[in-house]
Predict the structure.
Amino acid sequence: MKLVIYLIFLSLLCSCAYNNIENIEIAPQPTIPVANQKYIVTATGMIFTPSSLTINKGDTVEWDNVSGFHNVNGTQTTYPSNPVSFGNSPAAAPWTYTFVFNTIGNYSYLCDVHGISMSGTITVQ
Ligand SMILES: [Cu+2]
């Protein structure tokens, strides 16, 4: 008789344990942040392509001069509202200039050689 009671008890215990396993909820996984991205802006002719970009803090922009004599001027001297300065000196293609945007805000830049007609914006969010 003791054995029967023991087996019934054991059976109930197993049943409860099974139900508990069944009811375990898997916690939602944390959102994995997207790794920092690199964007390419091409300087060719008299335009930057794309001329406007929206990126995330920590992303890199690489300006790639494939033809002509250009530069990237995003200095606070030229654009006082830029959160930080960036840019390089005018030079003939080919060259690349990269900048990592670690400060959120709106940035403007232009090519000193071609002026405001060759300009662009970067929005860092
Ligand atoms: Cu230019």
About this structure: Residues 3-19 have pLDDT under 50 and may be disordered.
